[in-house]
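Quick one:
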Amino acid sequence: MLRGSHPTLALSALTIAALATTVLAISFDAGAAPAGVTITTIVGAGDVLQPAQRLRPPAPENFPMQVTPRCMILDNFGDPRSGGRTHEGVDIMATLGQEVYAMADGTLTYQNVVGDGRAGTALSGNSWKLTSVGGGTYWFYAHLSNFAPGLAKGSTVFKGEVIGYVGDTGNPGTGNYHLHFEWHPGGGAAVNPLGLMTVPPQCSVV
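Output:
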């Protein structure tokens, strides 16, 4: 019972199973509100976070990864690689399992999965291609230990949503945990993503 509230007023929780969200509402033991009492919506269904979101800090703005316990960005865009390749992204050194976030609202348009037999997977390991709303700019996330539950190629995701977890799959070598991150503005050639990211103070750039 709320202090100073009407004797018949109680706070209840209505669980909407289909959305896996909780809506807080004011209900009355009697069928109608007492005279002079105004019912005000506290939270709408679309505004309530999922339980997992409520238990973790918000994703950093314009940054693709959880920044703790480790975040060290290697400014290695354009560095030479084997086979005449150049490095088309930057590597963000981290620990196993740190969360990886969608940089924008969009669609997961490509997925490499360890063991799928594709040549590209041998390099990138578990990886996502995220294409922005409207289909142009895309981001590539590689070497994930795993993908966020419930996501697959074709899934719609939102900026800041967890899409995977840092790992060492592909060619980094065992224990070399990091996120390989690429930015392709307009769907074209890769551009150094350091120009896109807002580097949090917890991260170093080397």
